[in-house]
Amino acid sequence: MIKTMNGQNTDVRYDVVVVGAGAAGLNAALLLGRARRKVAVIDAGEPRNAPAAHMHGFLSRDGMPPAALLEAGRAEVARYGVRLLRGRVEEIEPGFSVRLGGGPVLGARRVLVATGLRDELPGIPGVRERWGKDVLHCPYCHGHEVAGRPLAVLGTHPGAVHQALLLRQWSEDVIFLKHTLDLAAEDRERLEAFGLRVVEGEIDHLVVEGDRLRGVELAGGRVLPRAAVFLFPRMVPHDGLLTGLGCAKDDSGWIATDRTGRTGVPGVWAAGNVIDPRAQVITAAGMGATAAFALNADLVDEDVQRAVARRQAATGARS
């Protein structure tokens, strides 16, 4: 048995414990398992893209349900001896001891945090209920499916202006609902010059009939028929485990890493949306692979250093 820093026992010490079993975490576990590393993956079962019926932009997996991708990924990593645990990690202690809520404490030589982010949605009635269906975020993920239809962009975030300009590629009928956004004169000119109509007035609620979005109703009762609406959510990373370990943030407020996902804390890596809000599923999977390569190389370096130290100690003892 291995004694953790808080005095609790764990039955095994892993080379790497991965927290989060999305595309980033599973792809990292796949490569580490194939490298014959002892790996455990812990996941709370709350993927960000759960509301979406399909994912797009992933070569060979375009249109696949997100849940099906994760199911296939779990089966693949299990073939290489990776241990999969359902649970929520409450704390990672230096050393590393990974504590699950109401469960075991896992020892690890290295940790990879791939816990993603949450989309903080505006409190407009109907938005949360239709999120991932006909209330959408990413034009690259969903624009093709609503191409040529009447669309609206909700002015709930400064990023909505860029989002609206992008959507013009998919439809000639895109309106920008200013809502409460303080729209700069320059942005208004850009929108209008690019063929987007700016509509004044606050949004009251989304009009839904028969499990389908029909339009947007403004305060005062005016209804604007739309087939889908886009909004830019506030993206909040699930980075509490990283900050708890002392990982620093960059100027934009996200955990700072190098190109492999290595944080400023030795032995701690991060990958996916927890460090990059722009990462799509295929991007996150690539980030997991990159982190896995770096993690394995770091472990090899440590193994070699230990082997050299043992040899030197043995040689010294015989001399």
UniProtKB/TrEMBL annotation:
Region forming the signal peptide: none
Presence of the UniProt keyword Transferase in the record: no
Alphabetical UniProt keywords: Flavoprotein, Oxidoreductase
Reaction catalysis annotation: [thioredoxin]-dithiol + NADP(+) = [thioredoxin]-disulfide + NADPH + H(+)
Keyword Flavoprotein (UniProt): yes
GO MF term list: thioredoxin-disulfide reductase (NADPH) activity
Coiled-coil parts of chain: none
Domain named FAD/NAD(P)-binding: residues: 14-286
Pfam families: Pyr_redox_2
Protein's UniProt name: Thioredoxin reductase
